TrEMBL record:
Pathway: Carbohydrate biosynthesis; gluconeogenesis; Carbohydrate degradation; glycolysis; D-glyceraldehyde 3-phosphate from glycerone phosphate: step 1/1; Carbohydrate metabolism; erythritol degradation. It is found in: Cytoplasm. Belongs to the triosephosphate isomerase family. It holds the Pfam family TIM. One of its GO terms (molecular function) is triose-phosphate isomerase activity. This is Triosephosphate isomerase. The active site is at H92, E162. Keywords: Cytoplasm, Gluconeogenesis, Glycolysis, Isomerase. SUPFAM superfamilies: Triosephosphate isomerase (TIM) (SSF51351).
Length: 245
């Protein structure tokens, strides 16, 4: 399967930062993996213009479960698609924390994304307290079951395992710990959507991935790429991660 290097710019970036996209595209005209950048909603359309004709795909960071209506401040999957997005990140831990998003809401958003023709990148992961309590697999299994929509396939679903305590902290689980959780996700996904589809779903690791640790993480079984926050903002850093895939 073709791996995926996905960048999450979070609430960072204005038009001036699009030079990074141009630099990334020039440095990696034919990458060995799929490359995705998810800027703030304000930049989706402009980034899609800059990325047109390159290997870089563009995604949103969230969408509403409805396609239109009285939902001030929200955007729909159809709107993202029209703006040039082909993917959308859903259920990122910052959305679950900042906006109280539940598994059921993430599942509804993912269903809307699939219906619109977007690929849903569904994020799951335990907090530090949950890991310390030995509940990692329990939490990840529950989030996976509750967040994956009906109709998910290898073509329209990506799962990102992101331990909350590893995001933006410089800390990561050990390599065996990452491999264990990814194997568990593959097994649970098989039960949810069947062996044929589950085998092709890309399972990304996310949480403090950087050029210096990317190679060893990507070598793990069932790690099919990365969701990268801080290190996706600069073409040089993200490019080095792309090269490691
Ligand atoms: C993320 O935001 O999804 C993430 C993994 O962030 P960072 O790479 O900065 O830890």
């Amino acid at each position: 399967m073709r791996k995926l290097a996905a960048g999450n710019w979070k609430m960072n970036g204005t038009a001036a930062n699009l030079t990074e996209v141009t630099a990334l595209a020039q440095a990696h005209p034919t990458p060995a993996c799929d490359v995705l950048l998810c800027p703030p909603a304000t930049l989706v359309s402009r980034m899609a213009d800059v990325a047109r004709g390159t290997a870089i795909k563009v995604g949103g960071q969230d969408c509403h479960a409805k396609s239109s209506g009285a939902h001030t401040g929200d955007i729909s999957a159809e709107m993202l698609l029209e703006s040039g997005a082909s993917y959308v990140i859903l259920g990122h831990s910052e959305r679950r924390t900042d906006h109280g998003e539940t598994d059921a809401q993430v599942q509804a958003k993912a269903a809307a994304a699939l219906a619109a023709g977007l690929v849903a990148v569904v994020c799951i992961g335990e907090t530090e307290a949950e890991r310390d309590a030995g509940r990692t697999l329990d939490v990840v299994g529950t989030q996976l079951h509750g967040s994956v929509p009906d109709g998910a396939t290898a073509a329209n679903l990506v799962i990102a395992y992101e331990p909350v305590w590893a995001i933006g902290t410089g800390r990561t689980p050990t390599l065996p710990e990452i491999a264990d959780v990814h194997a568990f996700i593959r097994t649970r996904l098989t039960a949810r959507i069947g062996q044929q589809q589950a085998a092709g779903v890309r399972l990304l690791y996310g949480g403090s991935v950087k050029p210096s640790n990317a190679t060893e993480i990507f070598a793990l079984p069932n790690v099919d790429g990365a969701l990268v926050g801080g290190a996706s903002l600069k073409a040089a850093d993200f490019g080095a991660i792309i090269s490691a895939l």
